[in-house]
Write a structure and sequence with these properties.
The protein is an all-alpha fold. The chain is built from 9 helices and no strands. The chain starts with a helix and ends with a helix. This is Amino acid ABC transporter permease.
């Protein structure tokens, strides 16, 4: 083992570089799958929470909606109000002890990250839907669109664009928070680093490598998501598309030209 700090870093990379990469791969798989499933859960929960209740609705419909929204509110508050580490211990060991359900570590990892992310995304989605101006909904209803059509074709496309930064934040958080899954035996980056550090008592060096890898993963994902957000924004200038020839009284208006005039 070299005596200097840099030499020990190089030595650990030579001896355990493959283990670090494998641990980082496990971290990314759990984070990506968990975030994706969690977003789906959050989208559904957020949409249900924003379903309007009108006076003309039947008592049965209002009663069912109240029960479903109450259950979703409990789910959101519990999983947003408790740490993922406690949730992992409760679900993985509690399900076996109380319900005799023996989960595999991989299933438990995906399940824990997904439902934890889903609780946060439910509130994010609810806020994204409520952030859209009510005139959008009123306009859709004015042309005969149902509530489902309004959500699918008018509200959700705008809401999803608004919450894209939060989706990216959840992915980055999950990349870092997968380290808590080491308590149920998942050999991800943090678990691997502990093993390498304990082998030679090189905790400072091993966790320096781990921090650099975590930073590379999160920074890369944030740049990719930022690029995606830019693509969703569309070009800096655009044409007003119309099929009505009567509208061509002064030519096509370009957004960039309008900006220049101002």
């Amino acid at each position: 083992m070299p005596g200097d700090f840099g030499g020990r870093i190089v030595y650990l990379l030579q001896q355990y570089g493959g283990s670090f990469l494998k641990g980082a791969g496990v971290t990314m798989v759990i984070a990506l799958v968990g975030t994706f499933i969690g977003c789906l859960i959050g989208f559904v929960a957020g949409i249900i929470q924003t379903i309007p209740v009108e006076k003309k609705d039947s008592v049965v419909k209002r009663g069912i909606l109240w029960i479903v929204k109450f259950i979703l509110n409990v789910y959101v508050e519990v999983f947003r109000g408790t740490p993922m580490m406690a949730q992992a211990m409760f679900i993985y060991f509690g399900s076996a002890a109380v319900f005799n359900i023996n989960m595999s570590m991989w299933f438990a990892a995906f399940f824990i990250v997904s439902i934890n992310t889903g609780a946060y995304m439910a509130e994010t989605m609810r806020g994204g839907i409520l952030s859209i101006d009510e005139g959008q909904t009123e306009g859709a209803k004015a042309i005969g669109m149902t509530h489902v059509q309004t959500m699918l074709y008018v509200i959700l496309p705008q809401a999803i664009r608004n919450i894209m930064p939060q989706i990216g934040n959840n992915l980055i958080i999950n990349i870092k928070d997968t380290c808590v899954l080491s308590i149920i035996g998942i050999v991800e980056l943090f678990y691997t680093t502990k093993g390498v550090a304990g082998a030679f008592y090189t905790y400072f060096e091993a966790f320096t490598i781990a921090m650099v890898i975590y930073f590379i993963l999160t920074f890369t994902c944030s740049r990719i998501l930022r690029f995606w957000e830019g693509k969703l924004d569309g070009p800096d200038s655009y044409d007003l598309a119309t099929t009505d020839t009567l509208a061509y009284t002064s030519g096509m208006l370009k957004y960039s030209d309008k900006e220049k005039e101002e």
